[in-house]
Amino acid sequence: MELAAVPPHSGFSLSDDDRVVGWGFGRPAALMMACGCCNAGAQERPPQEAFACGGATIAGGTANRAIDGRIFTLDDSREVRLVGIEVPPFAPAEDSQAVPGGVAARDALAGLLAGAEIVLKQAEPQQTDRYGCLVAYGFTTHYGIDHSVQAGLIAAGYARVAARAGSRACAAELLTREGAARTAKLGLWASSYYDSLDADNPADVPAEQGRFALVEG
Question: What is 51-191's CATH number?
Fold first, then answer.
């Protein structure tokens, strides 16, 4: 898979998320092996666990390249933005102003998409955003079983749950994965840059304007 250093489309302000103080971008495996034997009956696969995010299938294809940690293109050149998550903006590693984790998030997405068929499931009534990107929950298909791309990125610590993440059940499922990743200090959460701020010290919050921050309390 080709990885491209292409910047995200848009920006957002402090009001987009009461947990976020700026991040400079828009509204911020299991490997299953089929085993068998010619002298034994075929074993049935366990039933696929239902995932709370996503509606009807709206598109599919093969990923061509990852643009950042949540935007990628399909092999027919359509661009896809994964909803329900926020990732650091992608910037070349030599950029002295780059925030930590943008390259790692992009590479994590590329790894999840590599060699897999992609299924896109509806997230909003409008299937595209104002830039023409498909907006969807993404799933990779392995051995006939779908795996959520958003959940994979969050569980590995390379994305956080957005302020708007679909239904309550969807948000709860993703937040459970985020909590586990933060506790384990996986991915982005290993960096002190992403430590939470305490809302009981409000004077500390404006000082972080212009960068990603979590505020709890």
Answer: 2.40.50.90
Tracing tokens 């990885």 back to the chain, one arrives at 3
- Residue matched to tokens 């992609």: 118
pLDDT tens string 115-158: 889 999 998 888 999 989 999 999 998 787 889 999 999 999 99
Comparing 184 with 51, which gets the higher pLDDT? Answer: 184
Structure confidence at residue 208 (pLDDT): 65
Q: How far, in Å, CA of 189 to CA of 180, rounded?
A: 10
- Written in H, E and C, the secondary structure of the chain is CEECCCCCCCCCCHHHCCCECCCCCCCCCCCCCCCCCCCCCCCCCCCCCCCCCCCCEEEEEEEEEECCCCEEEECCCCEEEECCEECCCCCCCCCCCCCCCHHHHHHHHHHHHCCCEEEEEECCCCCECCCCCEEEEEEEEECCEEEEHHHHHHHCCCCEECCCCCCHHHHHHHHHHHHHHHHCCCHHHHCHHHCEEECCCHHHCHHHCCCCCEEEC
